[in-house]
Design a protein that fits this description.
Elements: E1 12-16, H1 28-33, H2 35-48, H3 52-58, H4 65-85, E2 93-96, H5 100-107, H6 113-130, E3 136-142, H7 146-158, E4 164-171, E5 174-180, H8 181-193, E6 197-200, H9 213-224, E7 235-237, E8 242-243, H10 247-257, H11 264-273, E9 278-281, H12 287-293, E10 300-303, H13 307-320
Parallel strand pairs: 1-2, 1-9, 2-7, 9-10
Antiparallel strand pairs: 3-5, 3-6, 4-5, 7-8
Helix pairs in contact: 2-4, 2-6, 3-4, 4-5, 4-6, 6-9, 7-8, 9-10
């Protein structure tokens, strides 16, 4: 279903979550009411020969990156299709956090759902194989300026136990670091010495750091062989927090996204600068909606992963955009 057939918003953006938002039983309630949810999962499952709905509902394999990524992408697109089916306003901009960038590109018609689930399944496999199990790690550093986190990463790397880099700039005072486990542990210790909070994340892959460069080189080949068009709704990409102006640039940014940091703080600032006041999180959970609520120019942020949340968001956005009184 093409988003361009629907009235375009002027103050609303959709954001799509990344890995970590998955939960067993996601979208079960909505699937009872909207046949399109199961149909979307069936379409995606046929493309990669895995029963993605079974994985989502049973939890079997849901913590394995190669399955997590296609399941989450499919859940996000199922919600997007339900939103449009119900007459929801098409947003002015789309953005996705890490994996969520692929969901945004499918929603914007740049990638087919089938091609996207194949890509992210491969992406997960390549990421997992790039670093041996237990060798990499990620941690959230809370309460420090970005520059200070970068400084601590440099200190930890200089200790010679491996490399660690800022991986996700999620919000002011919230940066995720990634790299070799010993170096990440060193940053955690340094952060605590600086009176910050540091939390080791339960992940099997150190995403968005230079350890992913071998995976990116292989992934670039798959991207070159995949049909990609310019999005029908502008998609703000993770790496530069900007909208790609041609397909080559879009592909390049998707490759770089594997080993460069997610510029989410800058992405949200870009949206605010474009007059966006309302954020809809299109996927399981409400992590991105909660981050958006902290921003000065965002009036409201809505998750839509349940019947009640979806109804609230639909009505609120229609009113906010002046479509209904």
């Amino acid at each position: 279903m093409s988003a361009t057939r629907f009235e375009q918003a002027t103050k609303t953006a959709f954001v799509f979550p990344g890995q970590g938002s998955q939960k067993v039983g996601m979208l079960a309630e909505l699937a009872e009411q909207f046949a399109g949810v199961r149909e979307t999962f069936a379409e995606a499952s046929a493309a990669i020969s895995f029963d993605l709905w079974h994985i989502a509902q049973s939890g079997e394999g849901l913590d394995q990156t190669e399955f997590t990524q296609p399941v989450l992408l499919t859940a996000s697109i199922a919600l997007w299709r339900v939103w449009l089916e119900l007459g929801g306003v098409a947003p002015k901009y789309l953005a996705g956090h890490s994996l969520g960038e692929y969901s945004a590109l499918v929603a914007a018609g740049a990638l087919s759902l089938g091609d996207a689930v194949k890509l992210v399944n491969l992406r997960g496999k390549l990421m997992q194989s790039a670093v041996p199990q237990g060798q990499g790690a990620m941690a959230a550093i809370l309460g420090l300026e970005d520059a200070k986190v970068i400084e601590l990463c440099a200190q930890a790397t200089a200790q010679g136990t491996g490399s660690v880099e800022a991986a996700n700039y999620n919000a002011q005072g919230q940066v995720v670091v990634a790299g070799d486990k010993a170096a990440v542990d060193a940053v955690i210790a340094l952060a605590k010495e600086n009176s910050a909070k540091a939390i080791a994340l339960p992940v099997s892959v150190p995403s968005h750091c230079s350890l992913m460069k071998p995976a990116a080189e292989q992934f670039a080949q798959a991207l070159e062989q995949t049909a990609i068009e310019l999005p029908s709704i502008p998609v703000i990409q993770n790496v530069g927090a900007a909208v790609a102006t041609d397909v080559a640039q879009l592909r390049q940014a998707l490759t770089a996204q594997l080993y460069q940091s997610v510029q989410w703080t800058n992405t949200m600032q870009y949206l605010q600068d474009q007059g966006i006041q309302y954020i809809v999180e299109c996927g399981p959970g409400n992590v991105l909606a909660n981050l958006a609520k902290r921003l000065p120019h965002i009036e409201k942020a809505f998750p839509i992963d349940s019947n009640s949340r979806l109804e609230d968001a639909l009505n609120a956005i229609l009113v906010a955009e002046g479509k209904i009184a």
